[in-house]
Specification:
- It is a single chain.
- With 400 residues, the protein is an alpha/beta fold.
- It folds into four domains: 22-158, Rossmann fold (3-Layer(aba) Sandwich); 162-223, Orthogonal Bundle (Helicase, Ruva Protein, domain 3), CATH 1.10.8.60; 225-333; 335-399, no CATH class.
- The protein is 56% helix and 6% strand.
- It has helices spanning 7-10, 23-37, 56-66, 76-79, 82-99, 118-130, 148-152, 164-178, 184-193, 198-210, 228-237, 255-269, 272-295, 301-314, 335-360, 364-369, 371-378, 381-386, 391-399, and strands at 45-49, 69-73, 102-107, 135-139, 154-158.
- Strands 2-3-4-1-5 form a five-stranded parallel beta sheet, with helices on both faces.
- Strand 3 (102-107), helix 6 and strand 4 (135-139) form a beta-alpha-beta unit.
- Helix 12 (255-269) runs antiparallel to helix 13 (272-295).
- The longest helix has 26 residues, at 335-360.
- The relative contact order is 0.08.
- Mean pLDDT is 84; it is low at 220-225.
- Bound molecules: adenosine-5'-triphosphate (ATP) and magnesium ion.
- Adenosine-5'-triphosphate binds next to helix 1, helix 3 and helix 10.
Length: 400
Amino acid sequence: MNEKESWTEKYRPKYFSELKGQELPIQQIKEFLNNLSEKKNKKKAIILHGPPGIGKTTIAYIISNEKNAEIFELNASDLRNNEKIKEILKPVAEQQSLTKKMKIILIDEVDGISEVDRGGISALLNVIESTNYPILITANDIWDKKFSDLRKRSECIQLKEINYRIIKDVLIEILRKERKFIENDILTNIAMNARGDLRAAINDLQMAANLEDPSKILVYERDKETDIFSALRMIFKGKPTNNMLNLFDSINKPIDEIMLWVEENIPLEYQGEELARALDLLSKADIFKRRIYKQQYWRFLVYENAFLSYGISSAKNSNSGIDKKAFTSYKKPTRILKIWMNNQKVEKKKTIAKKYAKYVHIGEKRALKEFSIIKQFLLKPEIQKELKLSEGEISYLESK
Ligand SMILES: Nc1ncnc2c1ncn2[C@@H]1O[C@H](COP(=O)(O)OP(=O)(O)OP(=O)(O)O)[C@@H](O)[C@H]1O
Ligand SMILES: [Mg+2]
C-alpha cells in the first residue's frame, strides 16, 4: 500500500450510497438532475453550500461517476478571463456531438471569488445563460450580497455538518479496511473534535494510526493554540507550505525559545545532506536574530520566522516523506534552554535595577548589588506601577 496516499482521497465516496449523513440534499440533487433531463427545470445551476469537509466537492465527482459525465472545472481566475470562458464553453458544445457524453460544469469554491473580481460573477451568470449543461457550484458561505443574483438563478441546496456518531462510523469502517486498531475512546474524541468536518476527522485518524501511541492525537486540538510538538511535527514531517510562515504565531513561546527547540530536534529528523542544509538555514535564522538584537530592527523577525519554519521544513529531500512518517518523540532543549532562560533572567534583573536606580538616584551597579534587599520593596504593586515595570519584569520578581 502507498503510505503517502491520503485516506480522504482513498476513501472519497464514488456513489451516492457511500456519501454519509446527507440524505436530504442527495434527494434534492437527484430530483434536480431528473427534472433537468426532462427539461422541467427553470434553473440550470445548483449551489451546494455548507461548512468544510462534508461532501460538496465529492458530490460533483459522484454525479460525474453515476451519470457517466465529464467534469469541466472553472476556477475564479478562469472566470475573469473572457477568452478562456469562450474557449471552454465552445469545446463543450462541440464535443458533445462527438462523444454524446454529458458534461457537468463545476465551479468549486465560488466564495474564493473576491470583491475585486466581481466581473467573475457576471461572467458566471453568462455561462449559466449560455450553456445547457448542468452547473454545479460549491461554496462555504453563499449569503454575501455579491452572490444575490447568483442565488436567484440557482437552486440552493444546503449541506450540514455531519453528526459525530456518523463520523465515528465512517472512521471505524476505514480502520477495518486498513486492518488497524484504535481504541474506542480515541475514536470518539477524534469524531467529536472534528465538529462535523469529516475530512478533518479522517485526517486526524490517519495521523493517529501512524503514531506509536495513538492517544497522542488527543493533545492536538483543532482551533486551539498549537503546541510546540505539533509545530515541530508539521515542520519536520510535512511539506513546506505558505501557512507555515505563520505557524509560530499560535505558539505561546518567544521566538528565541522556539529556535532552541528546532535546533535541539533537527538531528532527530535529518541526516547527512538534509542535516547540513537544515543547520545552514538555522544559522541564517540566527544571523537575523542577532541583527534584530543589535539594530533593534524588528522587520527581520519575518525572516527569522521564515527560515525557522518554511526553511527548515524544506531542508528535507522531496522523496523522504515516507521514512519521516514514523513517530518521533521530540526533545525539550534542556541544557541550552536553561542557559538561555538564565540569561533572560539576568537581563530582567538588569532592566529592573536600571529603572530603580534612576528612580532613587543611585548607580545601576549599586542597585544590582543590593537587589536582594530592594526586591522586597519592588514586590509592592504601587511601586511596580510607579517604576513602570513590564509584565515580564513583574513575573520575574514574583517567580523568585
Ligand atoms: N458525506 C461524506 N461521506 C463520506 N465521506 C465524506 C463525506 N464528506 C466528506 N467526506 C470525506 O472528506 C473528504 C473531503 O470531502 P469534500 O472534498 O467533498 O469536502 P467539501 O465539502 O468540498 O469541503 P470544502 O468546503 O473544504 O471544499 C472526502 O474525500 C471524503 O473522504
Ligand atoms: Mg470542496
